[in-house]
Amino acid sequence: MQQREEKQLEAAVESLISRVAHVKNALHSFIYKLENEYERLTWPSVLDNFALLSGQLNTINKLLKNEKTPSFRNQVIIPLLLSPDRDEDLAKLTEQRVPVFSHEIVPDYLRTKPDPEVEEQEKQLSVEAARIGPDGAQKHIQTLNKLCSNLLEKLNNPRDDRDSESAAIRQNKPSFNPADTNALVGAVAFGKGLSKCRPPGTVAPGHPGQGPMMSGGPTLQQVTIGGGSSQQAGMGGPVAPQQQGQPGKMPSSIKTNIKSASGSMHPYNR
Amino acid sequence: MEAPPVTSMPVTGGAINMMEYLLQGSVLDQALESLLHRLRGLCDNMDPETFTDHELVYLLKGQQGNPFILRARRSLSHPTSPWHLRYLGQPEVGDKSRHALVRNCVDVAASHSLPEFLNEMGFRMDHEFVANGHIFRKGVMKIVVSKLSRILVPGNTENTERLSLSYLVELSVLAPAGQDTVSEDMRSFAEQLKPLVHLEKIDPSKQRH
User: Fold this and answer.
1) Chain B residues near residue A194 by CB distance under 8 angstroms
2) Cβ(A27)–Cβ(A53) below 8 Å
3) What's the complex ipTM?
4) Single Gene Ontology BP term (chain A) (predicted)?
5) What are phi and psi of A98, to 5 degrees?
6) How far apart (Å, rounded) are the C-alpha atoms in residues A199 and A215?
7) Considering the entire predicted model, what is its pTM?
8) Mind giving me the DSSP string for B160-191?
9) Is pLDDT at A232 greater than 90 in this prediction?
10) CB contact, 8 Å: B28 with chain A?
11) In this structure, are residues B96 and B83 in contact, taking their beta carbons and an 8 Å threshold?
């Protein structure tokens, strides 16, 4: 009977030690990450670390609650020898964290009662719990559960409703105007709307020899049309470009050929 | 004076022919902030860079054909920087599947005597405008969000009025001729800016009418 209990105790303590070692490693790597890589750290990875720690604490709790685990409360640890000298074995065992097993470390490491502040808070909480009573507590629990499930439902389910609302709002406020796009591109590409603060198409008075400023838009258009219309020689008469005000600034490239329409001059010979 | 076809001869002996791939769009003033935030997130991490430029477009008229156009640009926020002279050719009418506007591009820096030099050469200034805004970079892609203003009194860059209530957004890449993967990258980047801005290939010759 004793032996079985002893074996159980030993096994429980060993598994507890290994779980605590896992928690220690997780904390160690988390602290390292926070101290050294904080520039690259993202909130989701911090959350992952916290989740890992919480999971490990959970397994420790489960282990302690396990029926196979003997109650640790019945065990007593008594320090047999306290010395202010450095103990090498202890130092190696605790990775240099407890080099001396002396009077200073005993109250911290062998403590069984919680801190006085924590004890106060616990007492307050139990007084509060006793005041509400078991029925009131049950009602609180139910309300909390209901709120949580409502929230979960809202978050999980109709994402489509929310999307359509936001899409409707976005459609009401277009963020660009295609007409503006065309106007701006025209301005950059060939100065539409920029020349002499006058939109193109109006007749430019244009004083001959007025220095660098020339009517911009109309000039550009008329040159290209001029190139095209020089082939219309047989049609007689200058075409529109000439009317856009060419006050003799440059020799017109349009040659006009006014001839009487006779059979031999028909452009579309059969 | 038609520009010689791009693929048959380099513009200057021995230099690589650079092409400019361009996508343009615009964004209304009220959506500007969200566009800038999105660009700050998508683009390379650098301090937000603003610029104020004064661009003058010079024309040289030949006897026939299209005039030769040169664009001279100087920075109003850095008055001592050199002027920037740029030639942009006609857009290449390649296959319709190319997603960006492609044209030949030659860039040189010039001293502050550039306007007088161009005048002496026979160029005449056609129009000028002031552009100011933000510039972002992602790899080789350059994204410029600019507000264009008209200059009311020629030569006076203080007295300006805005051209429209939108900002012009341009996505451009300078790459040697023949690289077609560039336009694919540009298109996927443009996808990420929807629905705030629709960057598309706008053919300037279609805009004239």
Assistant:
1) 127-129, 150-151, 163
2) yes
3) 0.80
4) regulation of transcription by RNA polymerase II
5) -125, 85
6) 10
7) 0.49
8) EEES-SEEEEEEEEEEETT--HHHHHHHHHHH
9) no
10) yes
11) no
